[in-house]
C-alpha cells in the first residue's frame, strides 16, 4: 500500500538516483522513534535520493504524525510504503519465531525488489539473522542495526553465565560470523559499543559501526518539577525514588517492593516511591498487590498509571532513579534521562546496563535479582550517592547518546555506502 509514488530508476547514475529501503514491521517501543529521527534528519538536511520506509499497516495507523513528515518533503524524497493487510496477517499468523523471521525476510526482499532498492537498512537485524544466512538472496546490499549481542558479556564485571548462556553465546557468535561472510552484508550498526572490537576481530570484510541509542531530551525548568512534586503530594522530607516506563515484573518491581518492605521503619518513613507508567495489563493483579503491601508501611507510594508523554519533569523531580531490570539485554534510555539531570541510578549490574553504570559512574550497579541488595542500595541513597557519581562522565555519556549522533552516523554511512557502489 504505497503512500506516495514509488517509481525509481534501477540504474544509479547520480546521488539523486539512489533508493534506500528502510525496513521495519514493528510499530511500538523504539521502532517509531528511530524512524522519526531518521525521517526528520533526512528532511531537514535535504539529503539526496529517495528514502523508502517499508512498515506495517499498524504503523501507519498508530503513527500518523511520523508518516506526515514525509508529506512535508519537497518532491517526495521520503516515502512510506505499508505492506498489505493480507501480508501483515500472514506474517503475524506464524507460530514460531523462525517461521516468522523467514516471512519477514521474504517481505523485505519482495519490497526491496519492487521499489528497485539500491540499498536496504534492516532496522532490527537481530530477528533476521537466520534467513539472512539461509534464505533467499536480497536484491540489494544490506546493513542492519544490531540490538542485543551478548557473546561479549564475559568481559564485563560480575557476569556469571549459566551453561545455557554459554551455549547461546557460542551459537550467537557463530551465526554472526557466518552472516558477515555474505557478500550482500556490508555494514553492521551496533547499539552496544563494547561489542564492536570483538566483531572486528572476526576479520570479515564488513564495516562495524557503533551507533548511539538515540534519546531526544526535552529539558524542563526546575519550577516545573517542583510543581509536579506538589501536584503528586510528595512529603517535603521524603527522598523520591522513581521507576518510569511500563510497570512490569521484568523491570524488577517485585524485588523493589520486597526491598522497601525489608527496610528499617525509620528508613521507610524517608522514602517516596513514584511509579510512573502504565501497569502491564497481564500483571496488574500481582503488581497492585505489591503496591498495596508497600502502601501499608510508612513508605509513601504514588502511582501514575498511564503513558508518560513528558518524562523529563519526573526525572528532574526525582532524587534517585530505579532501574533494577531483571537480566535485561541491551541499553535503556532511562540511564540517559537520569544522567541528563545528574540524578544517580540504582540499576542492575547485569550486562550492558551494569557496564554503563560502572564505566560512567552513573550511580550504583547491584544484583537486581536480590531484594536485599536493592534494600542496601536504597539505604546508601538515603545518605546520598554523590560519591558514586562523576558529573563529567555522566555528561559525556549523555552527549554520546543524543539523537543527533544516531541520525548523523546512520545517514553518513548510508550515503557513503551507496556512493561507493
TrEMBL record:
Enumerate the Gene3D superfamilies for this protein.
Glycogen Phosphorylase B
Q: Does the keyword Transcription regulation apply?
A: no
Q: Give the highest taxon in the source lineage.
A: Bacteria
Molecular function, one GO term: glycosyltransferase activity
Glycosyl transferase family domain location is 226-384
Is the keyword Transferase assigned to this protein?
Answer: yes
Keyword entries, A-Z: Transferase
InterPro entries for this protein: Glyco_trans_1 (IPR001296)
The family database entries (PANTHER family) matched by this protein are listed as: GLYCOSYLTRANSFERASE WBBK-RELATED
Q: What is this protein called?
A: Glycosyltransferase
Natural source organism: Myxacorys almedinensis A
Amino acid at each position: 500500500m504505497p503512500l506516495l509514488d514509488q517509481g525509481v530508476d534501477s540504474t544509479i547514475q547520480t546521488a539523486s538516483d539512489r533508493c534506500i529501503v528502510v525496513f521495519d514491521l514493528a510499530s511500538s517501543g523504539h521502532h517509531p522513534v528511530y524512524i522519526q529521527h531518521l525521517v526528520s534528519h533526512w528532511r531537514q538536511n535535504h539529503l539526496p535520493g529517495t528514502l523508502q520506509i517499508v512498515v506495517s499497516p499498524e504503523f501507519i495507523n498508530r503513527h500518523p504524525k511520523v508518516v506526515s513528515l514525509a508529506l512535508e518533503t519537497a518532491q517526495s524524497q521520503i516515502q512510506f510504503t505499508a505492506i498489505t493487510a493480507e501480508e501483515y496477517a500472514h506474517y503475524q499468523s506464524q507460530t514460531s519465531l523462525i517461521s516468522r523471521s523467514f516471512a519477514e525476510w521474504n517481505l523485505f526482499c519482495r519490497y526491496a525488489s519492487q521499489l528497485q532498492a539500491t540499498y536496504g537498512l534492516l532496522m532490527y537485524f537481530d530477528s533476521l539473522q537466520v534467513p539472512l544466512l539461509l534464505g533467499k538472496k536480497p536484491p540489494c546490499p544490506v546493513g542492519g542495526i544490531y540490538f542485543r549481542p551478548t557473546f561479549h558479556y564475559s568481559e564485563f564485571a560480575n557476569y556469571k553465565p549459566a551453561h545455557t548462556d554459554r551455549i547461546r553465546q557460542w551459537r550467537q557468535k557463530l551465526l554472526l560470523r557466518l552472516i558477515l561472510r555474505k557478500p550482500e552484508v556490508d555494514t553492521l550498526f551496533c547499539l552496544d559499543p563494547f561489542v564492536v572490537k570483538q566483531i572486528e576481530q572476526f576479520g570479515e570484510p564488513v564495516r562495524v559501526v557503533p551507533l548511539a541509542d538515540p534519546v531526544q531530551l526535552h529539558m524542563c525548568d526546575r519550577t516545573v518539577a517542583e510543581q509536579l512534586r506538589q501536584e503528586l503530594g510528595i512529603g517535603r522530607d521524603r527522598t523520591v525514588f522513581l521507576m518510569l516506563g511500563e510497570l512490569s515484573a521484568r523491570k524488577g518491581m517485585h524485588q523493589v517492593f520486597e526491598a522497601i518492605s525489608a527496610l528499617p521503619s525509620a528508613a521507610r518513613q524517608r522514602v517516596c516511591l513514584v511509579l510512573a507508567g502504565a501497569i502491564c495489563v497481564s500483571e496488574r493483579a500481582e503488581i497492585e498487590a505489591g503496591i498495596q503491601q508497600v502502601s501499608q508501611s510508612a513508605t509513601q507510594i504514588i502511582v501514575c498509571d498511564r503513558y508518560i508523554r513528558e518524562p523529563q519533569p519526573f526525572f528532574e523531580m526525582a532524587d534517585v532513579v530505579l532501574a533494577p531490570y531483571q537480566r535485561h539485554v541491551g541499553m535503556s534510555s532511562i540511564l540517559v534521562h537520569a544522567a541528563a539531570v545528574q540524578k544517580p541510578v540504582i540499576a542492575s549490574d547485569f550486562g550492558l546496563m551494569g557496564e554503563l553504570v560502572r564505566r560512567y559512574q552513573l550511580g550504583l550497579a547491584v544484583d537486581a535479582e536480590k531484594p536485599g541488595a536493592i534494600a542496601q542500595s536504597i539505604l546508601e541513597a538515603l545518605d546520598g550517592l554523590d560519591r558514586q557519581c562523576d558529573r563529567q562522565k555522566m555528561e559525556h555519556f549523555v552527549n554520546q547518546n543524543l539523537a543527533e549522533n544516531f541520525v548523523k552516523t546512520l545517514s553518513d554511512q548510508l550515503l557513503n555506502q551507496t556512493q561507493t557502489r
